[in-house]
Amino acid sequence: MKHDFRLATVFSLSSNPTLLLFKEMWIAVFMWCFVSSVFLYSIAALIAFSMLRRHKLGKFYSVMILIMGLIIPCSLGLISSASIAFVYKHSSLSMFPTHAMMWGVGQTVIHAAVGFTRILATL
């Protein structure tokens, strides 16, 4: 039986292919984190641009929101996805694509909540 990994099966959320290898789990969780982060931060950038479009410098704030929507998953998301995949792999657990979706979207929610509540600014 040949184990065939495709990113399309992760995004289709079919439960037939379980993710067994570290690389598969890492990529699946990271891609869900990346896609959900880009989606969430794109909506935030559109709202910021529509509200600040008449401001002299405020309209460029939406560009910074978009850049943060790419930087956060490429740095924090990459490291935390690797940590999740490491725990799954060394616990001898297989990961379903729905689990990868929950972990990836959950990371985005946590990153957005920390950014929204400004917890780090109080430290």
How would you concisely characterize the structure shown here?
The chain is built from 4 helices and no strands.
Give the topology string: H per helix, E per strand.
HHHH
* Average pLDDT for all residues: 86
Question: What is Rg?
Answer: 17 Å
Count of beta strands: 0
Binned, the helix content reads over 70%
Low-pLDDT runs? none
Q: Name the structural class.
A: mainly alpha
* Oligomeric state of the chains present here: single chain
Biggest β-sheet strands, sense, barrel: none
> What sort of overall outline do the alpha carbons produce when their principal axes are compared?
elongated
Task: Work out the strand percent.
Answer: under 5%
Ends distance: 53 Å
Number of continuous helical runs: 4
List keywords for this structure.
123 residues, mainly alpha, 4 helices, 72% helix, 0% strand
Reconstruct the topology from this structure.
Elements: H1 7-12, H2 22-52, H3 61-90, H4 97-117
Helix pairs in contact: 2-3, 2-4, 3-4
Structure write-up:
By secondary structure, the protein is mostly helical. Helix content is 72%, strand content 0%. The chain contains 4 helices and no strands. Helix 2 runs parallel beside helix 4.
